[in-house]
């Protein structure tokens, strides 16, 4: 590009033949002395080398020659000033290109170099050419860097050294040499043309902003160097990074046209820092709803504290997604679990609080709480150091009084715990290789509809996804894979958990999980768990199995449907209840387990697929529906598919109501169960009281609470073999286990009847 051609900019000074009144012996500024009538200057019309030229005698320590015209200096335009000189007589001086850098209003721009390198004249009559390149940007080959303040210049030369010598000077040449520096000026704007230095310390924010302002759709080039940006910088056009940038934590770099992780990696070079800055930009602009990682893998050397990347925020509630990439744990030291033990007091009247906590400042938010009477997956939700108390994610079932608690703070690849609220946030198509050194994701303290979709959480050391508060409200986990690091461990030795929830309305759909201690601990209600496959077996013959899903809220309002539940079981507890014995609340109720495939192999005969484990007395089943499931045991039968774990308490079977347990299939099960239970009973000899045993075929070893119907199957006859049409009365809940029904007749009878018996009311 040549400004004289493309924009009609006048660069070349007039020849000396046109007169010396436009050439100054000073700086070239208006009002300075000219050579028009100077005693030491004269125009020579016919020099044998130069043709017309200026003959000048040096008469001052620095004899100046400046063109008084205003030669414009535009951003991105580089000028070369060339002068040819020869000594004629007298002392031999030195010569250099020089200029006057003029700012707006004509004042001089201080602090910039305005003289070139001096070249000595050593021989009379020998032509010496001196030149210098002047421009706004600091580029290799630019002699005089004037920055953006300089709007124009007065260019010429200086004679230095001894006085008295006479020289002849050819016409001054000023030409546009921008093409030497810019490879594609028409499509590219270079930040150096706007004053960017790239030395790693100088603040180049203003230069970046200026380049963006004039780009007008052209690409912006950030050439080699390290550019410090102390303030927010936004690019509205495409940017190409050959160099890198550095920024303080609070400063935002927004690449509107290149908002994807590869561009930020180009900008920051360090992958972790690039992701942090890209995430910061995601939460600080309204132009993009998602951050595309472009399939890039980030080697994560320490937990990424997500709130630290956006120090200006404590909560966020606008839909944002991170998608299409990988976070892989690297190293080991930074991932060590922080464990501390402190004494604290629990009062069931303050259901989710520990008081008088010793050294509470040392306990980290998000820590797992362990101690006597503490249920599974109870975490530190928040803490108050001044008042020495801790808020828990769930109540404790039997911890009243003072004891020592252990607090384990696992380390997570992505740690959102610093957010007080994070809503409508999602992870889509992300892989988390935890490599058995760390956990996957720690949610915010609270928030709605956190979504994890099409993700792989691979080999977490302790936890896949952890909710330490209410950040799981309405959470959606969809089409993900949870791949345990404990595949080779026996069930009894496993400790990892796929995920947990505390709040309501989670949707867990179409996932696959392998060999955790527990895949899911569900602490809230109204959960929908559909279409998942999770398996937790081992190679121990007759070995134990752990719960795949733990439902920790008795009034569940949940749906578990269409899952493949393989070598594990559903455990339903009330371990997150500060008063676990029944009083007046809803008991174990409102749960639907429908259309699932249950499979086990090589397990102990007492294994069951559905286990109810009350932690206090007086509880019962109500509104439970277990229908359309397929139960199958291979490599050995099991006794029954359902049972009550009485480690803490038993159920009150006299209060069962609205329990539907039917339409299921049983293979390799010694005692199939159903409610209502359909029985056929025959008496070969006459008896006035028929004793009918349900043989343990009522679910959860329930009582035979009522007989819904009795119908004769064929003729009923008395002891005289006379057909009778009598109707018996029923006595339910008979026998030592209250699981028998007695039919009473008005006379001894024999024959066969069909009965429908229920274990609920």
TrEMBL record:
<feature type="domain" description="Rhamnogalacturonase A/B/Epimerase-like pectate lyase">
    <location>
        <begin position="189"/>
        <end position="243"/>
    </location>
</feature>
<dbReference type="InterPro" id="IPR011050">
    <property type="entry name" value="Pectin_lyase_fold/virulence"/>
</dbReference>
<keyword id="KW-0456">Lyase</keyword>
<dbReference type="Pfam" id="PF12708">
    <property type="entry name" value="Pect-lyase_RHGA_epim"/>
</dbReference>
<dbReference type="GO" id="GO:0016829">
    <property type="term" value="F:lyase activity"/>
</dbReference>
<dbReference type="InterPro" id="IPR024535">
    <property type="entry name" value="RHGA/B-epi-like_pectate_lyase"/>
</dbReference>
<dbReference type="InterPro" id="IPR012334">
    <property type="entry name" value="Pectin_lyas_fold"/>
</dbReference>
<protein>
    <submittedName>
        <fullName>Pectate lyase superfamily protein</fullName>
    </submittedName>
</protein>
């Amino acid at each position: 590009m040549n400004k004289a051609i493309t924009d009609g900019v006048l660069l070349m000074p007039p020849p000396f033949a046109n007169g010396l009144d436009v050439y100054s012996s000073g700086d070239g500024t208006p009002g300075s002395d000219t050579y028009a009538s100077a005693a030491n200057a004269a125009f020579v019309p016919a020099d044998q080398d130069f043709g017309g030229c200026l003959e000048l005698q040096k008469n001052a320590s620095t004899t100046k020659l400046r063109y008084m015209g205003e030669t414009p200096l535009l951003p991105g335009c580089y000028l070369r000033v060339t002068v040819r000189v020869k000594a004629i007589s007298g002392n031999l001086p030195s010569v250099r290109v020089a200029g006057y850098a003029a700012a707006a209003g004509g004042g001089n721009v201080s602090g910039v170099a305005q003289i070139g390198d001096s070249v000595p004249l050593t021989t009379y009559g020998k032509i010496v050419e001196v030149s210098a390149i002047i421009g706004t940007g600091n580029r290799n080959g630019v002699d005089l860097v004037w920055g953006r303040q300089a709007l124009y210049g007065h260019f010429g030369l200086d004679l230095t050294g001894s006085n008295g010598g006479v020289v002849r000077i050819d016409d001054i040449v000023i030409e546009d040499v921008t093409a030497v520096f810019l490879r594609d000026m028409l499509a590219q704007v270079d930040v150096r043309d706007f004053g960017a230095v790239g030395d790693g310390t100088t603040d180049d924010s203003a230069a970046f902003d200026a380049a963006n302002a004039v780009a007008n759709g052209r690409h912006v080039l950030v050439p080699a160097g390290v550019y410090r940006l102390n303030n927010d910088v936004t690019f509205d056009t495409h940017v190409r990074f050959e160099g890198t940038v550095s920024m303080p934590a609070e400063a935002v770099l927004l690449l509107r046209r290149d908002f994807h992780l590869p561009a930020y990696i180009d900008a920051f070079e360090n992958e972790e820092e690039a992701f942090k800055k890209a995430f910061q930009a995601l939460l600080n602009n309204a132009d993009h709803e998602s951050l595309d990682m472009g399939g890039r893998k980030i080697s994560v050397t320490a937990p990424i504290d997500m709130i630290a990347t956006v120090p200006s925020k404590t909560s966020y509630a606008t839909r944002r997604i991170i998608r299409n990439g990988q976070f892989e744990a690297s190293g080991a030291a930074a991932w060590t679990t922080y464990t501390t033990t402190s004494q604290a007091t629990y009062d069931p009247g303050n259901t989710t609080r520990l008081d008088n906590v010793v050294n509470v400042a040392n306990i980290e938010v998000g820590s797992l709480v362990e101690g006597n009477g503490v249920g599974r997956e109870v975490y530190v939700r928040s803490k108050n150091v001044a008042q020495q108390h801790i808020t828990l994610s769930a109540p404790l079932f039997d911890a009243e009084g003072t004891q020592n608690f252990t607090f384990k703070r696992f380390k997570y690849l992505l740690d959102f715990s610093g957010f007080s609220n994070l809503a409508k946030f999602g992870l889509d198509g992300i892989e988390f290789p935890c490599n058995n050194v760390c956990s996957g994701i720690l949610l915010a303290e609270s928030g709605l509809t956190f979504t994890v979709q099409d993700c792989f959480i691979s080999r977490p050391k302790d936890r896949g996804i952890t909710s330490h508060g209410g950040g799981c409200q309405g959470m959606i986990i969809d089409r993900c894979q949870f791949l345990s690091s404990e595949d080779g461990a026996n069930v009894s030795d496993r400790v990892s958990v796929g995920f947990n929830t505390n709040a309501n309305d989670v949707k867990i759909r179409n996932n696959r999980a392998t060999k955790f201690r527990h895949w899911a601990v569900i602490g809230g209600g109204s959960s929908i768990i559909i279409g998942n496959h999770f398996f937790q077996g081992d190679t121990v013959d007759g070995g134990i199995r752990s719960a795949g899903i733990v439902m920790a809220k008795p009034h569940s309002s949940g749906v578990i449907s269409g899952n493949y539940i393989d070598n594990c079981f559903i455990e339903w507890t009330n371990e997150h209840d500060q008063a676990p014995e029944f009083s007046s609340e809803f008991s174990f109720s409102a749960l639907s387990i429908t259309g699932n495939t249950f499979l086990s192999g090589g397990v102990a005969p007492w294994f069951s697929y559905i286990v109810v484990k009350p932690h206090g007395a007086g509880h019962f089943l109500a509104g439970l529906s277990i229908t359309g499931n397929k139960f199958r045991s291979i490599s050995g039968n099991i006794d029954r598919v359902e049972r009550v774990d009485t480690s803490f308490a038993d159920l009150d079977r006299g209060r069962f109501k609205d329990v539907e347990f039917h339409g299921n299939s049983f293979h390799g099960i010694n005692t199939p169960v159903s409610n209502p239970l359909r029985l056929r009973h025959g008496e070969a000899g006459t008896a006035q009281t028929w004793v009918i045993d349900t043989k343990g075929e009522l679910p959860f070893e329930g009582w035979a609470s009522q007989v819904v119907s009795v119908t004769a199957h064929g003729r009923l006859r008395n002891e005289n073999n006379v057909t009778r049409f009598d109707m018996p009365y029923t006595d339910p809940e008979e026998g030592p286990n209250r699981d028998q029904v007695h039919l009473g007749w008005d006379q001894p009878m024999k024959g066969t009847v069909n009965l429908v018996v229920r274990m609920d009311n």
